[in-house]
Each structure stands twice: as structure tokens, then as C-alpha cells.
Amino acid sequence: AIERTFSILKPDATRRNLTGAINALIEKAGLRIVAQKRVQITRAQAETFYAVHKERPFFGELVETMIGGPVVVQVLEGEDAIRKYRDVLGATDPSKAAPGTIRKEFALSVGENSAHGSDAPETAAIEIAQWFSGNEIVG
Ligand code: CMP
């Protein structure tokens, strides 16, 4: 089915001018960027976005990393978009990511892993709604 998923190009990617190279991999996979904006997220926004991880030992570092510079938030649309984008991203830990994936090509570490993608339809809907109003998404 045609789905939408939510993506963040993280501060390590914006800092190294990699947003275009990552977008090229996204588009090559057949995903369409139907919304996109560059934002400096606040600590409160980062804590809300990653609330599911708040008991994890890496939560504090995750929040600091995500507010350490601008990010690019996106909505991606396409057939089976949630799974497809996770395949394009590769494993969370770049040392375990397959060749040709975003994280294998670009990520620095598990914390600075260049991009985020929603893990399920329910989380995709919540994440998209946190960052975009309906009229900002143009399919
Ligand atoms: P992301 O897909 O954005 O979702 C949660 C993030 O936590 C993950 O990518 C990683 O960047 C980050 N993270 C930092 N440390 C760890 C860790 N030890 N295990 C899993 N995720 C981690």
C-alpha cells in the first residue's frame, strides 16, 4: 500500500553537508519527499519526540545530539514506505549496516547515525503530526 513515513536528517548530516546525498538515496529508492523543512529543534521537542526512549541509558545523550545543530524533517511517501525507508537507512548501528545504506555510507556512530525513520504506521502518523500540518504535505 502507499504509505507515508517520517524522516529526520540528523545534526551530524546537516553539519557535514550531506542532506543532498542522503536525499539522492531516498529518491533512488523510489520514495518521494512530499514535505521537508530545516529546523533547530528545542530540548522539549526532542524529549517529546523520543519519549519512548526516556528510560534508556542513552536518552540524555540522544537529546543532546538531536539539539546540537539543525535537522531536516521530512515526510516520505511511496509503496511500503515505512519498511522501504528502514531498508534504505540500514541498521541503527552503522557498523552493522549493509553496504549502500544511508548509515553505512554516512553515519559516524550509533548516536550520530545520520537519519531517523518511523518504525510502524502508528508511530509514523504521530511523528508526522508533531512536525507538519496537513497543508505542508504535498503528495
Ligand atoms: P533513531 O532511529 O533516531 O531512534 C533512537 C536513536 O537512539 C537511534 O536512532 C540512535 O541514534 C540513538 N541511540 C544512541 N545510542 C543508542 C544505543 N546504544 N542503542 C540504540 N540507539 C541508540
TrEMBL record:
Key word Nucleotide-binding present: yes
Any one of the GO BP annotations: GTP biosynthetic process
EC numbers for this chain: 2.7.4.6
Active site (catalytic residues): H116 (pros-phosphohistidine intermediate)
Cofactor(s) named in the record: Mg(2+)
Main location: cytoplasm
A GO-annotated cellular component: cytoplasm
Localisation per UniProt entry: Cytoplasm
Gene Ontology MF annotations: ATP binding; endonuclease activity; metal ion binding; nucleoside diphosphate kinase activity
Pfam family, one: NDK
Keywords linked to the UniProt accession: ATP-binding, Cytoplasm, Endonuclease, Hydrolase, Kinase, Magnesium, Metal-binding, Nuclease, Nucleotide metabolism, Nucleotide-binding, Phosphoprotein, Transferase
Gene3D superfamilies the UniProt entry points to: Nucleoside diphosphate kinase-like domain
InterPro entries in the record: NDK-like_dom, NDK-like_dom_sf, Nucleoside_diP_kinase, Nucleoside_diP_kinase_AS
Domain of life: Bacteria
Function: Major role in the synthesis of nucleoside triphosphates other than ATP. The ATP gamma phosphate is transferred to the NDP beta phosphate via a ping-pong mechanism, using a phosphorylated active-site intermediate.
PANTHER family named among the record's database cross-references: NUCLEOSIDE DIPHOSPHATE KINASE, NUCLEOSIDE DIPHOSPHATE KINASE DDB_G0292928-RELATED
Family under the similarity heading: Belongs to the NDK family.
Quaternary structure, from the entry: Homotetramer.
Protein name in the entry: Nucleoside diphosphate kinase
Lineage of source species: Bacteria, Pseudomonadati, Pseudomonadota, Alphaproteobacteria, Hyphomicrobiales
Gene name for this UniProt entry: ndk
